[in-house]
Amino acid sequence: MFLTTVRHLNANRCVVTKIKRTTFARLHPTQVVLPDGSTITVKYAEPRHLIRFPIKLEEATEEEKKKIQLLRRPKQKMVHVEDKGAKFDPRKYIKF
Fold it and tell me: Cα dist. 68→7, 32, 63, 72 in Å?
């Protein structure tokens, strides 16, 4: 009577990145945000945290339309100006 252990070596045993598969074996609980803002929990094939449905612009109020347009507008990039340190006076910090 010899006890042998079976090693299941396959491509997923030592994977460095995620397992790339098109269909997952189980359904994952996922939060769904409906257009009116309510949330429900559904079972989804991919592991996701949140699914948000789009808002229909025909049915939205003027306030919601403005809010959506502000969110869709491209963001302004912040201009970063580097300080050269020309105005630094070390004598100002002698008292510390």
Answer: 55, 19, 9, 6
For residues 71-85, average pLDDT: 84
Sign of CA dihedral 64, 68, 69, 71: positive
Pairing of strands 39-44, 28-33: antiparallel
Quote the DSSP letter at residue 36.
T
Residues 6+ apart with CB under 8 A from 41: 29, 30, 31, 32
Q: Which of 53, 48, 28 shows the shortest CA–CA distance to 38?
A: 53
As given in the structure block, the two tokens for residue 52 are 């948000």
pLDDT at residue 16, as a whole number = 61
- Tens of pLDDT, residues 43-70: 988 888 888 888 788 888 899 899 889 9
